[in-house]
Amino acid sequence: MIEESRKYIEVLRKYNFAASERSKASNAIDSSDIKAHGKSIPFSYVPLFINNDDLAFFQKSTDILYSILKKVTKQYIENPEYRKIFGFSKKLEELILLPCNYSEIIPVGRNDFFFDTETKAYSFCEFNTDGTGGMSRDREITREILETFPDQDFIKKEGFHGFDTIDKIASNLISVYRSSTIAIKKPLFAIVDWKEEGVMSDFDRFISSFIRQGVECRFTDMRDLVFDGKNLVDKKDGRVINGIYRRAVTSVILSRLSDCKGLIEAVRNNAVVLMGHFRTSIVHSKMISVALCDPQTEKFLSEEEKEYVKAHIPSTYRLKSGYFPQSALESAIENKDEWIIKPEDDFGSHGVFSGLDASKEEWEELLSKSIDKGNILQRFCPRYDFDLLSPTANSIERIPLMLGAYTSCGKVVGFYSRAGKAGVIDFDHGGICVTTVKVN
Of 256, 207, 243, nearest to 104 (Cα)? Predict the structure, then answer.
């Protein structure tokens, strides 16, 4: 990871940081379909390098994490008492407990974490399942960086290339479908979201990948799904939908249930294979960190898993009266830079506030207003700087990097990372995208 970055930067310096090549790459991305919240994506011309040893390390970590999350999901589904830790609404609980016709718990996800390259220490910031996206951003920006790099002989010699994340996920989703109890030989897949909210750059590439792998696929707006009593159909042409890759986030589904009746009834009646079943919401919710830190969870984890949680999951408390210790609140007040507030269930950094970004007075007010409003209080993860090259910089900068490892069926299949100096690392807070190069 670090050695490859050092060599890449050393070559880049010989070309005075390749101003014209960087500009060409940026212009290509600006004119592409790759956007974030409708805007062009700022990115580092120095990517993250992942070699085979790095990949093996992250896979070993994922194996333990996946085992833990599988046990938590099982407990939630089977144990009504355990569900109380999460505090989910009745409507969400009903969705989670709908029948599922395959055994895979997380067909697609992304685990965001901070990683120390020297000590190999790491802490998870959050887990994403519902609507996990950004694959096309990593793919296209990586391609532009590698194609515009001023020394192509160096790129070839080092064996640098992008991850085939989309194709691997599509292949795994086909396998998940085939493992279901209602699979047919020639299914029609639909990627489902609301058209105005969907990441079409991802969807278009997934549709192409499914088709290349022999499965017909289309995008279908959530509002166009109708359950006819036997099948789930796309009302635009009456075609039966057999498998769904769900990209609609559960929190949005809950706020627009009237749009989702067709999908929900089809799942209830075992009429469709929902890849990204509502039970993935257990892991997607920020309450998963609260649950992992709860003594009830310790009871069904192995000793290795208990140690893993202690080492890699930051202390997390539900900001609800009677649910958090006074000592945690006092620590958050006295040491604001060590804590962060997040909504229990949201996405895209909505409603996230870091003590690092606020004055003492602002932070105390945020804390007070956040109690009993559906939030969690989490210890701020240690952050580690990486050598990166921001879009407008003319020299290498050391910037905190949050890595994101895409997983599919428990396997690491790619990465999507972001860097930023603010407490909340996101494009809306001055953050930049850091794409990934695979090293053979």
Answer: 243
Question: What is the secondary structure of 181-201 as a DSSP string?
Answer: TT--SS-EEEEEE-TTTS-HH
CA angle 169, 172, 174 (to 5 degrees): 110
Q: What is the pLDDT of residue 350?
A: 67
pLDDT, tens digit, 9 for 90 and up, residues 211-247: 999 999 999 999 999 999 999 999 999 999 999 999 9
What's the token pair of residue 180?
A: 């279901």
Residue 34 lies in a domain: yes
* CA dist., res. 326 & res. 100, Å (int): 40
Give the Cα separation of 208 and 166 in Å (integer).
Answer: 10
Between CA 116 and CA 252 the distance in angstroms is: 35
Measured CA to CA, the distance from residue 225 to residue 290 in angstroms comes to 35
CATH of the domain at 326: 3.30.1490
Contact between residue 250 and residue 278 where contact means Cβ atoms under 8 Å apart: yes
Q: What pTM does this model have?
A: 0.92
- Enter the tokens of residue 206: 């997934």
Q: Judge whether 332 lies within some domain.
A: yes
The one-letter amino acid code at 352 reads V
**Which of 347, 380, 413 marks a domain boundary?**
380
Q: Are 179 and 150 in contact (CB under 8 A)?
A: no
Structure tokens at 79: 């144990």
Domain range for 332 is 315-380
| DSSP assigned state of 42 | P
How is 100-136 classified by DSSP, letter by letter? -SS--S-SSEEEEEEE-TTT--EEEEEEE-TT---HH
Q: Is 120 helix (H, G, I), strand (E, B) or coil?
A: coil
User: Do residues 214 and 352 both lie within one domain?
Assistant: no
